[in-house]
Amino acid sequence: MARLGENQYGKAEIRVMKVDRDRPEHVLHDLTVGVALAGDMAAVHLVGDNSAVLPTDTQKNTVHAFAREHGVGEVEDFAELLARHFVDTQQAVHRATVSIDEHPWERLADHSFARTGRETRTTTVTYDGDRTRVRSGLRDLVLLSSTGSEFQGFATDRYTTLPETDDRILCTSVEARWRCAEPPADWRTSYDGVRAALVTAFADTYSRSLQQTLYAMGTRVVETCPGVEEVRLRLPNRHHILVDLGPFGLANPGEVFHVDDRPYGLIEGTVLADGALPDDWADDWASGGVW
Amino acid sequence: MARLGENQYGKAEIRVMKVDRDRPEHVLHDLTVGVALAGDMAAVHLVGDNSAVLPTDTQKNTVHAFAREHGVGEVEDFAELLARHFVDTQQAVHRATVSIDEHPWERLADHSFARTGRETRTTTVTYDGDRTRVRSGLRDLVLLSSTGSEFQGFATDRYTTLPETDDRILCTSVEARWRCAEPPADWRTSYDGVRAALVTAFADTYSRSLQQTLYAMGTRVVETCPGVEEVRLRLPNRHHILVDLGPFGLANPGEVFHVDDRPYGLIEGTVLADGALPDDWADDWASGGVW
Amino acid sequence: MARLGENQYGKAEIRVMKVDRDRPEHVLHDLTVGVALAGDMAAVHLVGDNSAVLPTDTQKNTVHAFAREHGVGEVEDFAELLARHFVDTQQAVHRATVSIDEHPWERLADHSFARTGRETRTTTVTYDGDRTRVRSGLRDLVLLSSTGSEFQGFATDRYTTLPETDDRILCTSVEARWRCAEPPADWRTSYDGVRAALVTAFADTYSRSLQQTLYAMGTRVVETCPGVEEVRLRLPNRHHILVDLGPFGLANPGEVFHVDDRPYGLIEGTVLADGALPDDWADDWASGGVW
Amino acid sequence: MARLGENQYGKAEIRVMKVDRDRPEHVLHDLTVGVALAGDMAAVHLVGDNSAVLPTDTQKNTVHAFAREHGVGEVEDFAELLARHFVDTQQAVHRATVSIDEHPWERLADHSFARTGRETRTTTVTYDGDRTRVRSGLRDLVLLSSTGSEFQGFATDRYTTLPETDDRILCTSVEARWRCAEPPADWRTSYDGVRAALVTAFADTYSRSLQQTLYAMGTRVVETCPGVEEVRLRLPNRHHILVDLGPFGLANPGEVFHVDDRPYGLIEGTVLADGALPDDWADDWASGGVW
Fold this sequence. Notes:
The structure is a homotetramer. Chain A is 24% helix and 38% strand. Chain A has five helices and 13 strands. Chain A has helices at 42-47, 56-70, 75-89, 187-204, 210-224, and strands at residues 2-12, 14-20, 27-39, 93-103, 105-109, 112-115, 120-127, 132-145, 170-180, 228-237, 240-242, 256-259, 264-273. By secondary structure, the first copy, chain A, is an alpha+beta fold. Chain A folds into two domains: 1-130, Roll (Urate Oxidase), CATH 3.10.270; 139-291, Roll (Urate Oxidase). In chain A, a hairpin with a 6-residue loop joins strand 2 (14-20) and strand 3 (27-39). In chain A, helix 4 packs antiparallel against helix 5 (210-224). The radius of gyration of chain A is 23 Å and the shape is globular. Chains A and B meet through strand 1, helix 1, helix 2, helix 5 and strand 10 of A and strand 1, helix 1, helix 2, helix 5 and strand 10 of B. Strand 6 (112-115) of chain A pairs antiparallel with strand 8 (132-145) of chain D, so a sheet runs across the interface.
């Protein structure tokens, strides 16, 4: 005999563009929205009774309609509005998670824009009828230092071949997620502050390892960004391998590198403000990012 | 002040091909391997002291060398061998997670092969010096039913526009992960059984919703596959939208569909054998798949 | 002053699934269709007069409607039907190119299917009101030989470091495009024959270079496939690099390979039947594949 | 009997990072380089005689070594230097095509950079021992106008359902390739000028169709950029579909759009300076972009 365990369902990757047109300078909100709902869903799984199922198509419609009715504004606010709606209006839904990616554009003129292709701003908001959990974040922020990075003194064993280096390229694509003790006065200002802290700490830290750089970046965030009490970082180490030009009679003093795709290092870590409780990991399924 | 929270590091996407050449019929093991280690890593984060850090380059070398020394065999066994090695030989490493994707080929001749492009077999093994957790799985198994699927009687609200349907295409790309109470006698036989159960249940279930199909697939697995006590399924609903040909004076009785990329439904659920304890969700960070 | 040169426009990547339901065993036609039209389009470019422009949305509708009215059948036939329609019914359109990818599925039961993920069958048909040009093809057919491949005796210069090898893995992802002197009796039979010739020639050719293998594959096609008078092949060389396990005290007699993503070799060549004229390269813009 | 037709071979996607370190402010040249060679290659195809084959591995080494020996500078110059080298030093090589993508970074500090993710600058240079052909270009420049675009007065037929619109979003990802009558004094200045012309023309053109916008962009380039005598443009029409919010009692005056992935329109065209000869299309195989 079998029984149903944890489950959720929803609409993923709703691609919506909202244009604010009330001023001569239009404003774009270019979003990818995901919704995940959980609750009293035994009947649909066990006997195909759909009466508790709000279709994923309706979830998509709701995102569209809310963009028009309420505007988008800051993604954290828009995600919370949606999450609350699903829980508050559907008796069977006990928990809603709304995740939003915001894609950046730069203005060319009043109605003209170019996509910047810089990092994507992200948020994940979960509401369970009682508490609201908000995570802000970013991904695909690619940073590189062409010097000021070494890697020495590491553990060795039978399988070690890597030479020590006192000067290498350090390159990573930052994925970050953070939580604030209280919602900040303005999410955009808070976002800009965290982004600046991450970038600045990367740029001005002499790196003995990517782990050290990660910790420096996280520390900069929790120590300088008001209200941020935890930041998680996932930093792939995009290896730039110094090419041996010796066979061609050439020295290569940190000038020519092969950029490798795979494999890559992957450094993950969490930095907390002193006194902050660790996050409630068991809720991760709820936050939509867990498998 | 800041402090370090959860962290791990390792090498991701090590692409290794192992050829067994001891018989006239060569055998391929085409793998993508990921390693993640955790333990006493405070010093590297806080002060850049790398003495506890086994470089990710060494991890890659170890995968290569182990493929030669021990062969690959079943991916669950190979992953466990690697996970134990890192914990048993590195004092600072308290937990190792090894994830492997195995890419399928079909034989053309003794030494010639074609990639099948069918589903990828997966495993994730975690060892913490005490317990070993093994998960087997698959992904990118794309299944479709051209009839025998309806979606009716669902909840409606102000934002509902979806019409009910008593005949639609149901299409999904199965991602599954399961655990066995005990390691089976042969991982390959176990894998083939789970795959067959998933496919057969999908094909012979009349579907009132994808949730119901998910539960039928999961139930089939735990009820017919010896030793499997839990299976998690993630089923994107790849929408095939019946095209309205009315404007052209044509009926369209389930024949012509637009295949949509985004958005898509995403149905996730767990099915457990009666008596099986739910999995220990808090360990998910350890299993490498959690963000 | 400026003037308009070559131009064309159309709809790309129309994803359509046609289900034949007239027998208990349903049949799938899973297509990605592209349309490109050219003709008297000066007015739209120069002054925005759209009167000669058949919207790309209408092109998409036509694909949908034709799938229902005429069925899909063989992709070469369906593409030609569409190409002729646009030229024959739109005075301003002097040339239409229709390209189709067909994605393969295997039957599980009468109405159930699994995507095989093997190669994609392709076609490109151009009609200019007078002539019809048909090209058949395939791509993403990944083949590998685990032995029976060497690479020696090559040219060397100051920048040579590659050692010669008498035993390596040879792996490629075949992209092929061929033309027949006359339309074959059955396009599917013709396709199966070409595919078999490519695979068989790859498998039974001892390879001194990928160029030699390419020529052997092309020769096999034009010599054994009735009516095929030219085949073009594009073969990336997916390098499998033998790992040096010497530092770990291990020999590696062709067993453990690193699979590299980039860079890769790219070998392109054409094989013609004796007496066949070379293709009319200048028409390539028309065939939609040219930039 | 079979015979060999057109052929070429080379190394694709060589990922190289060159750092200029001679000043405190480092400069990055982040390139993806492709090489394709053609010439007396009958023996390798027919009998596997590799004596005329300069291995693709050597080509890669040459790119690395040249980056060190000569620096990278402007990609057009670097590509030409490489193309000439292969033809001038290898007797069997009669034609070399070198294609380079340059990936943009922005400076954060002397040695720190962030990838901008904006458009990629491209070039393709072919040398045949006699003539040098240079093409400059860009791709992935994503532009959007939130108003100032209509689409009306188009041709209609039985399959028309698209309503006319006098206000829509116009969005495209620009791919452009141009040629200069003579090499400009400075390739970077020339590039910046063409990019600015493309962006400005897109932003200040009231659009009656994407074809008209394409022609306006091309005209701006050839009329304002010194020496540019031809520009080819490939403009996908990234459809933003106005969502019908009527069922929810909401008007939607150009505010909420569904961003569709596929299908998309694809508008391609060439604009020439008065008096410029059309390009020599038959050479396209040589330029590496032809299939």
